[in-house]
Amino acid sequence: MPTILRIKGYRFFFYSNDHSPAHIHIEKDDKTAKFRLDTLDLARSKGFNAKEISEIRKYVEDNIDLFKSKWNEYFND
Q1: CA distance 4 to 2
Q2: Cis peptide bond upstream of 2, omega within 30
Q3: Domain boundaries, given as residue ranges, for the chain
């Protein structure tokens, strides 16, 4: 599970056997979420409240280039 970024207790990562479309997993404590990188849509969430999802979405938007680059580097090489 390559960790790409940590911000304020959130861990942004991929699973080593992940699949398309490109997406990023997020976890904090026992809560999880997944955002698609092409549309920035929330694919799923467990435990996060609406405020946390908004905060996570902002972090994904701010780091979208990094996440896409790391996805392509890891899965397309």
Answers
A1: 6
A2: no
A3: 3-76
